[in-house]
Amino acid sequence: MYTKLLVPIDGSATSRLALEEAVMLARLSGARIELLHVVDELEHIWGRPSPVVYIKEVRPMFLKAGQDLLDETRAEIESQGIEVDTVLLESRGTRASELIAGQAAKSGVDAIVMGTHGRRGVDRVLIGSDAEQVVRLSSVPVMLVRQARSSVAAA
Questions:
Q1: Which of 59, 89, 91, 149 has the fewest CB within 10 Å, making it most exposed?
Q2: Residues near 102 by Cβ (< 8 Å), separated by ≥ 6?
Q3: Which domain of life does the protein's organism represent (predicted)?
């Protein structure tokens, strides 16, 4: 069935749900999990730091935060008896979806399991969907996991 699953994580609730699904699949199939975190430098720049400040202070800070997320998640999954690899990538202007699909091809995974926010309408048009792009770009199956929407009872 599965021998290796790629799980992109970003610390969000939907990323967490996807991780739980991947852990369940790994347990059932004996698969190894590869955790991937993509650091988008643009999300971490406020104002215009000088190049020296960026290189010596800002960049190391967001790379450490990404690596900490990977390390903490790896320890949690390994404690459940599942083998885990980690990969930290910097976007450097490349969309996360392209990096995720590329990593899947490079690592030879059987599937990608990732969270999606399930944006619709204007939000989807304005923000776009990395998950949707991964589905389009990936050469392997992609399982999208979304939080259940709470239904509002009619008054």
A1: 149
A2: none
A3: Bacteria
Rounded Cα distance between 136 and 115, Å, is 15
Indicate the average pLDDT of the chain.
Answer: 86
* Residue at 66 is within a domain: yes
Q: How many structural domains are present in the chain? A: 1
Write the pLDDT tens digit of every residue in 56-100. 777 888 899 999 999 999 999 999 999 999 999 999 889 999 999
Tens digits of residue pLDDT in 55-67 = 777 788 889 999 9
Q: Is residue 151 part of a domain?
A: no
152 inside domain: no
Note the pLDDT tens digit of each residue in 3-37: 999 999 999 999 999 999 999 999 999 999 999 99
* Cβ-Cβ contacts under 8 Å for 101 (sequence gap 6 or more): 112, 133, 134, 137, 138, 139
3-state secondary structure of 44: helix
Amino acid at 65: A
CATH of residue 76: 3.40.50.620
Structural domain of 118: 4-145
